[in-house]
Amino acid sequence: MYGDTRKIMPKIVILIPYCPLPIDSGAKAEMWKHLGLLREIGDCTILSASSRPVGTPWSNKNLAEVRNSGFKVILRENGILQRLQSIPGLLYGAICTALGWNRAFGHANPYHRCAFPLKWWQKNTKDADLVVINYSHWASLPFNGPKAIILHDLWSDVMWGGASTETHDLSTCDLVLVISSDEREKLMDRGLSNIVCSPPVSESTDFELTDSVGIVGSNNELNREGILWLMGGNGSIPEHGVRVYGKLAELIPTSESQFEVIGKYEDSSQPYRDCGIIMIPTASGSGVQIKAIEALSAGCAIVARKGAMRGIPSSSNAWIEVETPGDMWRETMGLRRDSARRQHQGKMAKLYYKQHLDAHAINEKTRKAYADLLEVR
Predict the structure, then answer these.
(1) Which of 158, 162, 168, 304 is deepest in the core (most CB within 10 A)?
(2) Domains of the chain
């Protein structure tokens, strides 16, 4: 009698603080990317939360979609004991929010640290072959086996609290995945060596390089500063305005005639299909701007404020870098008028994407990093 020759898949447990669907933010897109890669190499169980602290409601539709995609989902219990244990963190969060201390939610803040009880974590990971944790807040959770951490942000760059505890907790992980080359270099300078750079991915697309101009973004503080900076340039685009996509459009006053409000869009490629020229006025922040990678993958002609293309290898020709709002308007208008120059810039963007940000290459490198932990390549 022949034995069962079916391959035994490793058991992988992934901690995510909230539902990754719908994919309406860069962090959710990154979560879904990693979930897909992990599903290729093992049987995956998601641990998450459906209420505060940190969690948001999982709708029945989203829960069913995640499960139908091949994942088991276990949501944190919200019994009396868990509610009592979370009170200090909830109070901390409420006080800091009321005082406007947005930078008080760094790596070791109690709001995040108390979100997932140790016993619940240990019960649900005891049979796992690999655990993968999203966000560094929970990097210190113990596990007797390989542990990977996905850093959507390096909190010591943008929040209060310093780098000491963050570095110590990350040193307990066998693999640290970062989204930018800048973050990789910073962690290596701190003495960490188990780091893989896995930037956001965007599949290559080819659209007609129109002379329409677009800006893409949410309405967060950093994007708000960027659009206000651009408005200060007193520029104008003749014939039709700059199209503004996403929640950033909510910040455009009706008096700003050089902008055309588009707002919400369903297809992530729509801005780049509509617009052959993309302006990126947001320069502050950490990590990588997904809109920059999307524009490169579509081969758009890009005009970027200095600092906007952070976290990816530098380039002298894949985008046009400017330092003032006036320069951004002038370069953008020049690309509108000059079709040959616009086509050249689009070609340079696409070549850069293929060399540094090819989605297939990034996914394969990331999958291999996980597989190496399990030795199942």
Answers:
(1) 304
(2) 11-200+359-374 (3.40.50.2000), 213-356 (3.40.50.2000)
Looking up tokens 């890669």, which residue turns up? 37
CA proximity to 15, closest of 104, 93, 122: 122
Tell me the β-bridge partners of 133: 15, 149
Judged against a pLDDT cut of 80, whether residue 138 lies above it is answered with yes
What crossing angle do the helices spanning 339-356 and 325-337 adopt, rounded to 10°? Answer: 110
Helix residue ranges per DSSP H, 159-220: 164-170, 181-189
CA pair distance 191, 189, nearest whole angstrom: 5
Q: How far apart are CA 334 and CA 171, in angstroms?
A: 49
Residue 341 half-sphere exposure toward CB, CA atoms < 13 A: 13
Q: What ranges in 148-207 are assigned the alpha helix state H?
A: 155-158, 164-170, 181-189
Cβ atoms < 10 Å from Cβ of 171: 15
pLDDT, the chain, mean: 91
Instruction: Answer left, alpha or beta for residue 255, where phi above 0 means left and psi between -120 and 50 means alpha.
Output: alpha
Residue 56 pLDDT level (bands cut at 50, 70, 90): confident
Give the pLDDT band of residue 233 (cuts 50, 70, 90). low
Please state whether 49 falls in left (phi above 0), alpha (psi between -120 and 50) or beta: beta
Residue written as tokens 């995510």?
16
Q: 3-state class of 170 per DSSP?
A: helix
Q: DSSP for 265-318? A: -SSTTHHHHH-SEEEE----SSS--HHHHHHHHTT-EEEEETTTTTTS---SSS
Is a pLDDT exceeding 50 seen at residue 175?
yes
Q: Answer for the pair 291, 198: CB distance below 8 angstroms, yes or no.
A: no
